[in-house]
Amino acid sequence: MRTKEILGTPATTHPIPQEAFDWYDEYAHGLIDRRTFMARLATITTGTLTMSILLSTLLPNYVAAEQVSFNDPDIKAKYVTFPSSMGHDEVRGYMVIPTALEGKAGVVLVVHENRGLNPYIKDVARRLAKAGFVALAPDALHPVGGYPGNDDEGRALQRDLDRAKIEQDFIASAKYLKNQDLSNGRLGAVGFCFGGYVVNMLAAAIPDVLDAGVPFYGTPAAQEIRKNIKAPLLIQLAELDRRVNASWPEYEADLKANYNDYTMHMYEGTNHGFHNDSTGRYDEEKAKLAWARTVEFFKKHLS
């Protein structure tokens, strides 16, 4: 049985069984409901590994995880809205621009998980602006009032939206961002979980628009459109993420058959969501490495 230490405590004091992370992944992706998730967690509680400790480790703490403040002097952030004629008519996104930007820069679309534009994804957009890119993080939940402030409600809202229209909203977002006055005409996209899927989808659906993609633990686009992919891909996977990794061999076979430019990194001992620093799935060392590779990749392909 694999275990993982709770952040800030010795592994020998409160080891978290791998099953807890697996169950959280199933819960977060709608494969089990909250009651089932809680009932499973109850089976592994002890006198020292309490339900409170488990939940504080597995569920997000966005305030504690912020890396770049919204009022950091090196960035300027604002909300923008733009049309999405094939989607939900209008998209609202969080745009972040480097304060010192002179002229034009590479632009990067940031795609959230299956719960809307939460604080973690906004922080990722700010990190990209700190690195010199113009970043845009759309909110798929804009048609229903936007991210509601907690992930459970966000997941429920996103699940009830038309997925095809959500995909069209992100296609509209990519085109909008690439055509901004501050854009140098080179568009990248990075996404996490559902957002990783969206990056793969954009590469296949709008190959002449996307110039570089970084999907973190995302499933591939529909097989019939994968042959359209042109952009180089930096694919980031977590070793313990059995659900997403099951799709990788087939996807890699298609990328090879199409002579695509791709690199895949499998991060040893990590769970799905290892880059998200708001939960106990976060692996600081591997997340920093994956992020450094992401920034380097975008600097190479978006300059």
Task: Provide a descriptive summary of the structure in words.
The chain is of the alpha/beta class. The protein has 2 domains: 3-59, no CATH class; 72-302, Alpha/Beta hydrolase fold, catalytic domain (Rossmann fold), CATH 3.40.50.1820. 38% of the residues lie in helices and 22% in strands. The chain has helices spanning 18-28, 34-42, 51-58, 62-65, 119-130, 151-160, 163-178, 194-205, 242-245, 248-257, 284-302; strands at residues 3-5, 15-17, 75-84, 89-98, 105-111, 134-139, 183-192, 212-216, 233-238, 262-267. The strands form 2 sheets. The chain has an 8-stranded mixed β-sheet with strand order 3-4-6-5-7-8-9-10, with helices on both faces. It has a two-stranded antiparallel sheet with strand order 1-2. Helix 1 packs antiparallel against helix 2. The model is unreliable at 5-13 (pLDDT under 50).
SSE inventory with pairings:
Blueprint: E1 3-5, E2 15-17, H1 18-28, H2 34-42, H3 51-58, H4 62-65, E3 75-84, E4 89-98, E5 105-111, H5 119-130, E6 134-139, H6 151-160, H7 163-178, E7 183-192, H8 194-205, E8 212-216, E9 233-238, H9 242-245, H10 248-257, E10 262-267, H11 284-302
Parallel strand pairs: 5-6, 5-7, 7-8, 8-9, 9-10
Antiparallel strand pairs: 1-2, 3-4, 4-6
Please summarize what this structure is.
The protein is an alpha/beta fold. It has 11 helices and 10 strands.
Task: Give short descriptive properties of this protein.
alpha/beta, 303 residues, 11 helices, 22% strand, single chain, 10 strands
